[in-house]
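Fold description:
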Amino acid sequence: MKTRLLYRNLFVILGADALLLAAAWYAAHLVRFDFAIPEDQWVLFKAMLPLMLMIKLVTFYVFDLYRGMWRYTSVGDLINIIKAAGISSLLIVSLVLFVTGFKGFPRSVFILDGCLTMLFISAFRLSVRVYYEIISEDQSLRSAATMLFRSGRSKPSDSKNLLIIGAGDCGEKIYRELHDNARLRYHAVGFLDDDEAKAGMKIHGVPVLGPVRNIKAIARHVRADEALIAIPSANAEQMRRIVDHCKRSGIKFKTMPGLGELINGKVTVNGIREVAYRDLLGRDVIQLDQERIGATIRGKRVMVTGAAGSIGWELCRQVCRFRPERLVLYERAESPLYELELELKHTFDHIKIVPQLADIRDRQQLEKAFEASQPHVVFHAAAYKHVPMLELHPWKAVKNNIFGTRNLIDVATRFAVERFVFVSTDKAVRPVNVMGASKRVAEMLVQGENGHGPSDSRFITVRFGNVVGSAGSVVPLFKKQIEQGGPVTVTHPEVTRYFMTIPEACQLILQAGAMGEGCEIFILDMGTPVKIDDMARDLVRLSGFEPDIDIKIKYIGLRPGEKLCEELITDGEGVLPTTHEKIMVLEGTTRNPQLLNGKIDELVTPARNQDSGKIRMKLQEIVPEYEPSWSGLRWNMRTLEDKTGPETRLTEKIDEPGQGAVKHVSLQ
């Protein structure tokens, strides 16, 4: 029955188009001959009509004019109509010229016919869309009227008036989705935009009411309930200013994700979320070399370790954009792995997603996984990263970050992977904590594998700083403390860190991985370092409070293993630019893998015995620049003197000596 209905509709559409085409042909003759068609032209008119209809209808079919839904007629459909009408007219003219040499045919008739064909067919399809939009609007009005009648209120109780900040492409797309979907219960009452040229103009009949600075008065005038920031390309300064105006207006406000978060490039209301701290960072949109990354990933088998972690999860999403043949999710946490598998299979149903519940510390599990999947590319993001926790349990850092990475390198070399990309951290630079030292040893292992193994595998390291919103990040901690009413705890007013968003970090990991030839340590442009104290105060304000008035800021002192400032390079590492403006490369040196592995083997016994002192001593032998946390205080002191002057005094209090002893520091 459905097939019969489709056929019936097709015949109706063909019949309507045939009538319109005949009308265009007739109108062209009327215009040409001043509404008095000569007898001899009537004969030619009747003779040409069937041929003209056949050629045009076939051409229309070839240009897919009978497969679209007219109620959704778009600019693309109109362009196809113009193409089809032009091509069909050209075919008719060519045929007449070839057969008759235009003898007896007025040339202007064909030109007029082509123009009228475009006009009639386009108008007909647009009228269908207008008709359905009027019906849809009438149904929405009737539904609203019914609710009004039942509730007796001025508008439905769950309907909200919305101001859209940004009268650009994103704002227009949001308006269309709100307008077409009555279930969203939002009514756009106006746009705000700082572009003075747009003031007073309308988008789909909705006016641009003025600049963002006037949002308070405008919101009161149009009775707006909420505001939506629809400017994905806004930088940090713009976002801070817009957020400040929204807060002063007293209405709720949300935002669209930044361009780096829009994985599929689609702007939809599903992406609307609360304004987050990452929006205030205002990181620039990353320009990726799509072709180069695609050549590395497209059609390949890819494995991501630590797949369900903060970086790993986003890395999997980004990898899927480049259509690998298979993506292996190597992860030891069961529930997050299950959630990640569901998301990726739903979003990227054309890619084979293979979850692997396993641990990089178990060599047998690794070998089984590699044997089953035979990956071409490995992104190694699995690691313990929490600095204070690993200061208390250094053997965990050794087993996971060092031994686990060595297992993975060995198995990847054995199975001759094409590329091995290791995700490192700025804490590996002149480390003062076990986590940083363990990651530095892992970097050395990755560098040492190039040119020493039996395969041509390329081993690449990518080093960057903190990412906003990752597991163990300070931002979730601050948010939780704000929800509890404070205080917000900051280690020191002068502590600074480099920050970037998770999507940006993962995009640059892919780019660096595609650029690498082996042995390099790529460092990502982290921009300007951010004071943690400023971050805490911004988050308090973003939550609707005032720091030190509503929510207290409390300084608790540096924790074991923490620096005042992080670095991205260390002594002796020369930084060189690359073809990508956001990525630099260090002049890496290959290591003797046998000598390095011999030293690492000496960590086995102290790690098994959980001997913190010996672990730190061995790490210091392997990484001479490593200064355990109590020695690292000297580095912090030097940095602080650069900021505050040499008069700053250091006071130390040492716990009882023994395993895991900690020095507490206060600065005066």
